[in-house]
Design a protein that fits this description.
By secondary structure, this protein is an alpha/beta fold. The chain has four domains: about 1-45; about 165-280, no CATH class; about 290-465, 3-Layer(aba) Sandwich (Rossmann fold); about 510-630, 3-Layer(aba) Sandwich (Rossmann fold), CATH 3.40.50. The protein contains 15 helices and 26 strands. The strands form seven sheets. The chain has a seven-stranded mixed β-sheet with strand order 18-17-16-19-20-22-21. Strands 1-2-26-23-24-25 form a six-stranded mixed β-sheet. A hairpin with a 2-residue loop joins strand 9 and strand 10 (about 215-220). It is globular. Keywords: Glycoprotein, Membrane, Methyltransferase, Signal, Signal-anchor, Transferase, Transmembrane, Transmembrane helix. Belongs to the methyltransferase superfamily. One of its GO terms (cellular component) is trans-Golgi network. Its main location: membrane.
Length: about 625
């Protein structure tokens, strides 16, 4: 047989047979990859939704995603091949039967690089009947949802890595509309020209309002209103400054293209300009001897606070550049720092660039997006919130989210100054705190820094509420309070305390693995929680940390978009990063359990934009989120 085949080929009697075999081999080689790819596609139990258009312009990289709709937002592998369709190309749907043309455009405008749809809806803001209660700093999401892409700023560079970023960030992270030649920048200043806005870095002090009257601009500083002329001619006292500024109003925001006066009074050092960087030495209006000494003074005043053991989860209201929260990281304390987007110009962006947990928010007319009884301690250092406003609703909101037995630290001039205005504020605060059963644990004044503070404690049980002479404010109707803070108005009542409110969580780090007090009473809830913890612990250690090619040293700010019990964050606890645990409002409410574990998080509706600046997070984690969204999500 072999000799016959050899003879046929040698004599070339049947050349068509030779050609046939060559053609057969070629056809088989073409069919094999296609079949293999088809088999792989059939083996995926959770195929991606083919109707979803691309969310961003593809780059010279390929995105790695886990099976079962568990994906990581910033994991890329280098490639010289464009692995996706162009942003202008069509997205195929329904197995190729239909084609939907989606053309993505860049967001336009001078502020497009920092565009936040639900906070920058100027049409809605201008139509507000009142701004008295900070309505203009609350969420006003546009309808329809914008479909433009936020552009990268010109000259964008990779941020300074952690932990160096806590002390310094690149000076061009906030994008200025004017060149440095257009203004004078002292080496150490309390006010910086940032993104065409005047930013006052005096702790939490800032410009409170600006109005145009009689042809001149009036600036409302902490010392009152003054015209531009009087700012030049008058030497202010206290925490006021003598800057000549030229103000131009645009889109409801005041711009300052000129900043120059040589004799600037420098009473706080929150930020220092050094070459191409902003440096954070840890000073501020209330941290005149440094933030670390301030923190140490608090613990000496009230040792029971026990930073990093009893006190683990903190909320810092009106946080400035978050130096307080940043310093507490060394003490195993995690702090959510928040401030409005524009009232504290870009300071939250500073905080996030530093690698410190922060978010944009305001105590206005709506509840904060946290569950009841969440935080171990709340801090306000000249945060400029009128706690007694609107019948005391702002302070009652703090009372709602403060854990029973938790502390509120208030460091502000009404605590330690004796002028009439401050004393009137103090008297109002005394009446309000007594009405909600807060007791003064300590009130002190630090001679070295010439500042004072008062520490209040929330009651451990509802007995004080029941024994008040007047039921004012009244107790809230218990009802179903789960997931109740999303777009919900502030309460004018006190939330009844849980039956087991006298139980404080275990000391850190034991509370991370212990069963949360707020866990559902359903029979299998505890086993579900423990199973979830084991699952993510194994997956992170065996796959995420070593099997995905992630350079974890470059990852600092992380978001878990569908956090469940926070077990993904718990599994990463020994990594030099922090995780914002997001509980979607359409999912089971597990956020209280996350706080019980000593982690941080927030509610959110993924139909809408998140309250943060573009380019905030180094890594986004999503597990079983997108396939569970309702049809209204576009």
């Amino acid at each position: 047989m072999a000799e016959s085949a050899h003879s046929l080929l040698q004599e070339r009697k049947y050349p068509f047979i030779f050609a046939f075999f060559i053609l057969l081999i070629f056809v088989i080689s073409l069919q094999t990859p296609a079949a293999t790819a088809a088999d792989l596609a059939k083996s995926n139990p959770f195929p991606s939704n083919p109707k979803t258009p691309p969310l961003s312009s593809p780059s010279n990289s390929s995105t790695i995603s886990l099976n079962n709709d568990s994906s990581i937002g910033n994991i890329t592998t280098d490639s010289n091949t464009n692995t996706g369709a162009s942003v202008d190309n069509a997205a195929a749907v329904d197995d190729g039967d239909q084609v939907v043309d989606v053309e993505w455009e860049l967001c336009e405008g001078s502020a497009a690089v920092d565009y936040i749809p639900c906070l920058d809806n100027w049409n809605a803001i201008k139509a507000l009947p009142s701004r008295r209660h900070m309505e203009h700093r609350e969420r006003h999401c546009p309808d329809p949802t914008p479909k433009c892409l936020v552009p990268l700023p010109k000259g964008y560079r990779i941020p300074v890595p952690w932990p160096k970023s806590r002390d310094m960030v690149r000076s061009f992270i906030l994008w200025c509309n004017f060149s440095e030649e257009s203004f004078t920048m002292p080496n150490v200043v309390d006010t910086l020209l940032i993104g065409a806005l005047l930013l006052h870095h005096g702790g939490c002090s800032t410009i409170t309002s600006m109005v145009e009257m009689c042809g001149g601009y009036f600036v409302n500083w902490s010392c009152g209103c003054s015209t531009v002329r009087s700012m030049v001619e008058t030497s202010f006292s206290g925490s006021c400054f003598t800057y000549l500024v030229h103000m131009v109003h645009r889109y409801g925001t005041t711009m300052f293209p000129i900043l120059s006066l040589p004799n600037t009074r420098r009473i706080s050092i929150g930020v220092v300009k050094s070459g191409d960087y902003f440096v954070f030495p840890g000073g501020g209006t209330q941290f005149k001897n440094g933030v670390n000494q301030y923190i140490e003074s608090i613990e000496k005043t009230l040792p029971v606070i026990e930073w990093g053991k009893k006190t683990r989860v903190i909320l810092d209201v009106g946080c400035g550049v978050a130096s307080f929260g940043g310093a507490l990281l060394d003490r195993n304390v995690i702090t959510v720092s928040f401030a409005p987007k524009d009232e504290h110009e870009a300071q939250i962006q500073f905080a996030l660039e530093r690698g410190i947990p922060a978010m944009l928010s305001v105590i206005g007319t709506q509840k904060l997006t946290f569950p009841d009884n969440s935080y171990d301690l709340i801090h306000c250092a000249r945060c400029r919130v009128h706690w007694d406003a609107d019948g005391g609703k702002p302070l009652m909101e703090l009372n709602r989210i403060l854990r029973p037995g938790g502390y509120f630290i208030w460091s502000a001039t009404p605590v330690y100054k004796s002028d009439e205005r401050d004393q009137n504020v103090w008297k109002s605060m005394v009446a309000l705190t007594e009405a909600i059963c807060w007791k003064v644990v300590t009130k002190t004044f630090f001679d070295s820094s010439q500042i004072g503070l008062v520490i209040y404690q929330k009651p451990m049980s509802s007995s004080c509420y029941q024994n008040r002479k007047e039921n004012n404010p009244p107790l809230c109707n218990r009802g179903n309070r789960r997931n109740n803070s999303w777009y919900a108005p502030l309460d004018s009542c006190l939330v009844p305390l849980p039956v087991d409110s006298d139980k404080w969580p275990s000391p850190w780090p034991e509370r991370l693995i212990n069963t949360p007090q707020s866990l559902s009473a359903e029979p299998d809830a505890e086993e579900t929680f423990k199973g979830d913890t084991r699952h993510w612990s194994a997956l992170v250690s065996e796959v995420y940390l070593g099997g995905l090619g992630i350079n974890w040293s470059s990852v600092r700010n992380v978001m878990d978009m569908n956090a469940g019990y926070g077990s993904f964050a718990a599994a990463l606890i020994n990594q030099p990063l922090w995780v914002m645990n997001v509980v979607p409002i359409h999912r089971p409410d597990t956020l209280s359990a996350i706080f019980d574990r000593g982690l941080i998080g927030t509610y959110h509706d993924w139909c809408e934009s998140f309250n943060t600046y573009p380019r905030t997070y180094d890594l986004l984690h999503s597990s079983f989120l997108l396939r569970n969204l309702s049809m209204r999500y576009q």
